[in-house]
Amino acid sequence: MAGPITVWWSPTCTVQELRRAGAGFLPPQPALPNDFWDQPDNLQAVIDYLREDPHGDQTDLTWKVAEPVTEEVLRAVHDPTYVTATLSNPDAVSVRAALHAVGAAQAATSDVLNQRARASYALVTPAGHHAAYAGRGRPGDVVEFCSGAVAAVTALRCRRVNRVAIIDVDVHHGNGAQDIFWTSPDVLTVSLHGWRNWAPGTGGQDAVGDGDGLGTNINLPLPWGSGGPTYEAAMSEVVAPALDVFRPDLIVVAAGYDGGFTDPSGRMSLCSRDFHSIGQTLRRWADSNDCLGVVLTHEGGYSPSYVPILTAGFINGLGGGPPPTDPFLAHWRPNFAPPMSKEAEDVIDRGRSALALLASR
Ligand SMILES: [Zn+2]
Fold first, then answer.
1. Is 130 a catalytic residue?
2. Once rounded to an integer, what is the mean pLDDT over residues 87-105?
3. Which of 189, 155, 170, 148 is nearest to 291 (CA)?
4. What is the pLDDT of residues 129-150, one digit of tens each?
């Protein structure tokens, strides 16, 4: 995947006014510190790290500032009632951030569709992968739109694109895209996540889509503590074969980093090498198939010290560069990287079975 990766960002997503619990990104969480969730400082840490390239091993990035998304696209993805309620939220700062976040996803997609880049990254918040067709079911509660779905719908409007795959590697289930494309034959949704976390009641392996979309949703609810070997197996034995069967013209990645081993939200054991490996697998697939490229939307990740390095890992894997310098590795990998468990093997086996349903369409 030669050439620079474009990164779409917006200063509206890092303004300090967003740094208050319950400001609209998410309501306050009783059991968690106030500054836990989507906070502008977490995103700013990633932007600063990638711009400064402290170790000089970063893939070439071209930075671009995103505009807000058009309302028409939002209404093509979400319930119009949800869109109206969300845009009417009195927290104008959060609404502006959400519109720019989705605008970045739209612009990143256009970059790849127009062959200005083979990979493009919407590096923005809020994360949108929990926003289902009607949001979270309580309009006005959370100011968010599903960026990955906006990317997919934008791509499907291009005559060269017939099919899009959305791969969600956030530690929480990608319930938003699953719900929005539940009956769509044109969008494959695959989610690797920790079992029985957010969103409640979703993410099981019996959720396979319906109607014309039967077989186009694959969930891999992995046991807590899963690390590199499990994710590698999931990518090589389920995700890449699913791409072989579905043959998407574009890959969208919901790039969440809360599976990192230092993350206060997830309980997985991933390090920068693992995200590098995931990026590498997707790059190789795109390069050896007739695929326009890869669009990433930035999702969760709540460890401000480690998410920047994990993001660099993903980007370098995607761009064909080496894994980034990672000072955490010396203390982590030799002692704690867990092998694949029997439970994880079972999940991956069931994932392999789902390929047959996908192929029978
Ligand atoms: Zn998450």
1. yes
2. 93
3. 155
4. 999 999 987 656 689 999 999 9
Strand blocks (E) in the chain: 5-9, 61-65, 119-122, 164-168, 187-194, 217-222, 250-255, 294-298
Give the chain's mean pLDDT: 91
Distance 69 CA to ligand 1 centre (A): 23
**143, 128 Cβ separation under 8 angstroms:** no
Q: Which residue range is the domain that position 33 belongs to? A: 5-359
Q: Which of 78, 129, 130, 173 is catalytic?
A: 130
CA of 66 to the centre of ligand 1 (A): 23
Q: How far is the CA of 115 from the centre of ligand 1 (A)?
A: 30
The string of pLDDT tens digits covering residues 199-253 is 888 999 999 999 999 999 999 999 999 999 999 999 999 999 999 999 999 999 9
Ligand 1 centroid to residue 171 C-alpha, Å: 5
Domain of 331, CATH number, reads: 3.40.800.20
The tally of domains found in the chain comes to 1
Token duo for residue 157: 């409007």
Over 80: is that where the pLDDT of 19 sits?
Answer: no
Residue from 177, 65, 40, 164 nearest 112 by CA: 164
**What's the confidence (pLDDT) of residue 41?**
83
**Ligand 1 centre from 130 Cα, in Å?**
9
Q: Do the Cβ atoms of 361 and 350 come closer than 8 Å?
A: no
**SS3 call for 96:** helix
| CA Rg value for the chain | 18
Ligand 1 centroid–CA 217 distance in Å is 19
